[in-house]
Design a protein that fits this description.
Elements: H1 6-20, H2 22-41, H3 46-74
Helix pairs in contact: 1-2, 2-3
């Protein structure tokens, strides 16, 4: 079914306008303002206020987030395999009497 019904398209556009349109923006601004006032009075914990603000960012940023994920998924390439360089010096063990913490707790005189 590649043909879209005009009624279905109109319904989706109406829902889109309802969720991220001017009415939703005004309600989000009012919600954040009320949350801020309640936080100032000490009635709302900080975690709940962050949830409200981050929820607004996710709702209004959803189209951008989805585009970012979809473009990242299209540009995924296989990682490049890098072989180790043959010029790496061998790791040498320090002498048995070596103490890296010697003198660390003593004052410098």
């Amino acid at each position: 079914m590649s043909v879209e019904s005009p009624a279905l398209v109109q319904a989706v556009n109406w829902i889109d306008q309802l969720v991220v349109g001017p009415l939703a923006v005004s309600l989000a601004v009012i919600a954040v303002a009320i949350t801020g006032l309640l936080m100032l009075r000490g009635h709302v914990p900080l975690e709940a206020a962050f949830r409200i603000v981050i929820g607004c960012f996710i709702i209004f940023g959803a189209p951008g987030i989805a585009l970012g994920i979809m473009s990242a998924a299209r540009n995924v390439t296989a990682p490049e395999v890098v072989s180790p360089s043959p010029n790496i010096a061998p790791i040498t063990k320090p002498p048995a009497t070596y103490d890296p913490y010697a003198g660390a707790a003593t004052p410098v005189r």
